[in-house]
Design goal:
Length: 243
């Protein structure tokens, strides 16, 4: 069973079907559409600050070829990561994790915090995200779910996180030995690619009582199938399709 009350619908990178991903605008849009939780990606800057970004480089969202983790936070927050999505969002900046936590508190929203390290920075990114949560997570919103594809990041984060925080191992395809892997790591939930989840594996996870959540679900029939299998939650670019 989940340690916290996570809803059936989480907005992916904010409502990223309607606004530029991993921005304050996307989180506000998710709230306006009725979502109560959002998912977003946390990365570490060159000077040790946690900010929101998904790709290793900023080429897709900001039009610059640098690796995101090779820039200081002062340079990152001045980049425009909204114009690529549409003219209405031109000038939308990269937010820091602390700015996002303040907005979540203002809106009364919960969050799935994904640790997204640049290659070679797994341990320090996991530790930095965990320390930010430990020191600055608002008391007036639910504890977060912390997830990552990186076992090294999660292993570094877990000792620094409170026992009330749920930790999810992220997989593309859930391996047959999923139970042993999450037990060895100390994770308490499974997050996985909706299109690569097998019914038998889903049944094992659901029967065990471990929370099972799937990304990125943007079609109603797929959501209905997954909920029919017992999946607890879907992560979607379009929360308004399901709320």
């Amino acid at each position: 069973m989940s340690k916290i009350d996570v809803p059936r619908i989480i907005a992916h990178r904010g409502a990223s079907g309607h606004a530029p991903e991993n921005t304050l605008a996307a989180i506000r849009t998710a709230h306006e559409l009725g979502a109560t939780w959002v998912e977003f990606d946390c990365m570490l800057s060159k000077d040790g600050r946690v900010f929101l970004n998904h790709d290793e480089t900023l080429e897709r969202t900001a039009g610059v070829t640098h690796r995101a983790c090779d820039l200081d936070i002062a340079d990152l927050v001045h980049l425009d990561v909204g114009a690529w999505f549409g003219p209405d969002f031109a000038g939308e900046p990269i937010p820091t994790f602390r700015q996002v936590m303040m907005l979540l508190s203002e809106l009364g929203m919960g969050a799935n915090v994904e640790i997204k390290p640049c290659k070679g920075h797994e341990k320090e990114t996991g530790m930095a995200v965990a320390k930010e949560i430990d020191g600055h997570w608002p008391e007036d919103i639910p504890p977060p779910v912390v997830s990552s594809f990186s076992k090294e990041s999660l292993a570094a984060a877990i000792p620094l996180l409170g026992s009330e925080i749920e930790v999810a191992q992220l997989w593309g395809r859930v391996p047959a030995e999923w139970r042993q892997e999450i037990a060895a790591l100390g994770a308490t939930a499974v997050h996985c690619n909706a299109f690569r989840l097998e019914k038998e594996i889903a049944g094992q996870i659901v029967t065990s009582g471990v929370p099972l959540r799937c990304y990125t679900v943007n079609e109603v029939p797929l959501a209905e199938k997954l909920f029919g299998w017992g999946v607890n939650c879907i992560i979607t670019d379009y929360p308004d399709m399901f709320i």
